[in-house]
Amino acid sequence: xxxxxxxxxxxxxxxxxxxxxxxxxxxxxxxxxxxxxxxxxxxxxxxxxxxxxxxxxxxxxxxxxxxxxxxxxxxxxxxxxxxxxxxxxxxxxxxxxxxxxxxxxxxxxxxxxxxxxxxxxxxxxxxxxxxxxxxxxxxxxxxxxxxxxxxxxxxxxxxxxxxxxxxxxxxxxxxxxxxxxxxxxxxxxxxxxxxxxxxxxxxxxxxxxxxxxxxxxxxxxxxxxxxxxxxxxxxxxxxxxxxxxxxxxxxxxxxxxxxxxxxxxxxxxxxxxxxxxxxxxxxxxxxxxxxxxxxxxxxxxxxxxxxxxxxxxxxxxxxxxxxxxxxxxxxxxxxxxxxxxxxxxxxxxxxxxxxxxxxxxxxxxxxxxxxxxxxxxxxxxxxxxxxxxxxxxxxxxxxxxxxxxxxxxxxxxxxxxxxxxxxxxxxxxxxxxxxxxxxxxxxxxxxxxxxxxxxxxxxxxxxxxxxxxxxxxxx
Length: 475
Fold this sequence. Notes:
The protein has three domains: 38-160, Sandwich (Immunoglobulin-like); 181-407, Zn-dependent exopeptidases (Aminopeptidase), CATH 3.40.630; 422-474, Membrane-bound Lytic Murein Transglycosylase D, Chain A. Helices cover 28% and strands 25% of the residues. The chain contains twelve helices and 19 strands.
């Protein structure tokens, strides 16, 4: 009898409705019959499966806010067929002339789109993977040629028909003169693209996500600044999509991409900051890093970076002389962040680097790329893997962004109002104290008390205070 709990019916895609299932031998990858001779039976079953042309090396699943990606890695280019079946809703992937190795494991699905993944041999020489869907979804498929660190990949993207509307609409802006400066924090790589891999299998995508989360916490704790994350989990966002999210979804004022790369020699170490160059790289290291970062779309499972399909108006802006203003502001932001980093961590060099990073090609906002260090250097890799160093470098980046924002606040923002009027009105909230308010606005308690004529340390909820503008030299 067929046991539905241990795999998939090898004929469920073709068997007529109501027809009895044929009697099957237990030739499945998972769920072998248990008993005194269970281990021997499992080994016998594996030995009975012939080694045919291709091999399924692994199945991976990545959840993004708007989709779920399932990746089937194969040794050779896959020959396959995909079927959509209903009642229950599922996706069936048949891999022809394909086997799995002894170490293969069907992953546990932890996704809002894919409820369960099942797999089994079909007709002894084919292998079937079934995705039991938790909700209706549209499907897109893509076959990717080998690119390090992967061989061939069959990529299936599932887009749920019920889209969660959280963060889809732009946030309601504060009244003119009171809005926060929005900083888009972009953790590099993610999902299928691990980025650099350091000693002890430390992944760049994991390190920079942790640093970026800490950077967001730091920025959100600074008056007049608000951070948004381009990537919040382990999934991949295309390079051009990162800039589009920052501009169109979040209305960001600044764009900061966070990385931790590798170089050909383990001797290279130190943090660095880069801006976009239209003329070529400023150093061999900058050129090397830009070429590696620009390959991310291929590793992450998307096409190569190109601006040919960008809207004509945007394309004209990218090459227009109006880019000069944005480029100058990017350099100023990069220099300020580099100085702040230099006060806390070792630098690769004391000047801002330039290279053709595709992720920095924004026509409207200052954009920089921060290399927090090199995972190819064993000592630096160990430091970058610790929470204390991640907090340290995130704090330095945040301080640099804050310093630049105070000196060059966009019009209509709270910091611009404070700069123009020497301060801003603040209404005391529950949980506030003079020290808390002063720390948030990066001024001293003494300055806050002097500006408001306060003697002692007592303030009351609803009380109005005038918070003086903090010059850069006050920090």
